[in-house]
Structure formats: C-alpha cells, structure tokens
Design brief:
Blueprint (H helix, E strand, L loop, with lengths): L1 H7 E6 L2 E6 H6 L11 E6 L13 H20 L2 E12 L8 E11 L3 E11 L6 E14 L16 H20 L9 H4 L4
Antiparallel strand pairs: 1-2, 3-5, 4-7, 5-6, 6-7
Pfam families: 4HBT (PF03061)
Keywords: Hydrolase
Organism: Flavobacterium dankookense
Length: 198
C-alpha cells in the first residue's frame, strides 16, 4: 500500500507532521512566479459607519481590508485555497480620515514550502491634489491548503525589483526570528538572522 502511495503522491515533511499531494497537482502550478503576478490593489472610500469618534477609519476595518487583499494575492500566487496564518507586523503610521480614498496594495514577498509572506502598503489619496501618501504597512502570512484543510506546496518566488529583493531577503530573517521565538528553531541555526549581528 505504501509503495502504491509513494508512486502517486509526493510527501512533504513539515514541523507539525507530513502532508501529501498528487504529483499532477504538484507539477501543475509549481513553476516559480514573480511578485507582480500576485499584485492585488483594492481601492475604497472611508464611510461614516467605518470611523471612530475622531472620524478616522477604525484600525479593525483597515485590518479586514488588508486581510482581503492579502488573501487574493496569496490565492493568485498559489492558485489554491489560502488561510491567514498570522499577522506578523502592522504599522498604523497615519490616521485615515472620513471620506479618504484608501488603496491597499498587496503582493507576495516570499514563498516557503506551503506558506507565503504577503507585504501590504496602504495609501491615501488627497481629495483635491490626487497626491498619494503612504499611511500604513503590514506583513501577513498565509498558508495554501487543500479541500480538507491540509497544507500544500506553493510555487517559489523570484523577486525582480530592488524593493522586492530587499523584502524577499528580509522575509527569511523574519521567518527565522518567528521560529526562534516560538522555540521551533535553535538560535544557532538561524543563519540569516545571525548575519545581522556578525
């Protein structure tokens, strides 16, 4: 039985166990992709029902918008069902007033075995001049899963621009830091992270 299984399926080791996928599904969409292929842009207005007593957009509303954009970006990269694994970083640098035009830009910054880091930039547009100002940024992690909720592999990512390359390199350091803090990686094995201090 195991021999038959191994002929038709590929087994991927993970920290939490093993998962499998059919060779056809693995090969079907495993060509490396570029960040631009996952780019997702959501633009919307800030309405009165979405603001706090200071007439600024609720942080939770912005998080929901970012989560939707990140979900679409992850799906475009993996072409699979994706679920939010973590919100690694959110910076509310600038309040977003009522009536603002808000644009959330999301794209995959790095792909690992089954997870994808999504980097998000939030822009607000001046109503009169049309000049865009960066208001916020965030980093989410999504995992691609099959119909039963088990992780499946995703294509690797090839960054193109200087910004994409910088975010790609930093993503590995962020992942190693997360694993070290969770006790899932020995600090001595976090080579990319250690390189920052050597």
């Amino acid at each position: 039985m195991l021999g038959c299984l191994l002929k038709n399926y590929k087994i991927y080791p993970e920290k939490s166990g093993f998962f499998i996928c059919s060779n056809y599904l693995c090969k079907k969409s495993m060509s490396p992709k570029h960040p631009s292929e996952s780019l997702t842009i959501l633009t919307d207005l800030v309405l009165p029902s979405e603001t706090n007593p200071l007439n600024n957009l609720f942080g939770g509303e912005l998080l929901a918008r970012m989560d939707r954009a990140a979900s679409i970006a992850a799906r475009r990269h993996s072409r699979r069902i994706t679920v939010t694994a973590s919100v690694n970083h959110v910076a509310f640098n600038k309040s977003i007033p009522l009536g603002s035009v808000v644009t959330v830009e999301a794209k995959v910054s790095r792909a690992f075995t089954s997870s994808m880091e999504i980097y998000l930039d939030v822009w607000i547009e001046d109503r009169e001049s049309g000049i865009r100002t960066k208001a916020n940024e965030a980093i989410y992690t999504f995992v691609a899963v099959n119909e039963t909720g088990n992780p499946v592999p995703v294509p690797q990512l090839i960054p193109e621009t200087e910004e994409e390359k910088a975010r790609f390199d930093a993503a590995l350091r962020r992942k190693q830091l997360s694993l070290v803090l969770a006790g899932k990686m020995n600090p001595h094995d976090a080579t990319e992270l250690k390189a920052l201090f050597v």
